[in-house]
Amino acid sequence: MNRPNRRGGLLHDHLRKGGRVVERTAPCPTVLITGASRGIGLALAQEFARGGHDLILVARRAEALERTARKLREETDAT
Q: What's the whole-model pTM score?
């Protein structure tokens, strides 16, 4: 059984064990990612999209966000 730990919850525990981010630890297949147009947010968006999750992307710059969303749709089945 997956239980949240005191250092950051299921995702932190999963990463600490060397797993991939895309392994689902919750029944909800939709992921909200802030800062999705660059940096860590972009990397998470790419990993979750490859894992088949539906994404809700948020970023400050609309043009960069649209470019990111278009690229993810072309490369994966993300919606």
A: 0.63
Q: Encode burial over 25-34: b for 16+ CB neighbours within 10 A, e otherwise.
A: eeeeeebebe
Handedness of CA 57, 66, 15, 25 (dihedral sign): positive
Report pLDDT digits (tens) over 40-71. 999 999 998 888 888 999 999 999 999 999 99
Q: Distance from CA of residue 8 to its chain's centroid?
A: 16
CA distance 28 to 40: 21
CA distance 4 to 54: 23
Helix (H, G, I), strand (E, B) or coil at 54: strand
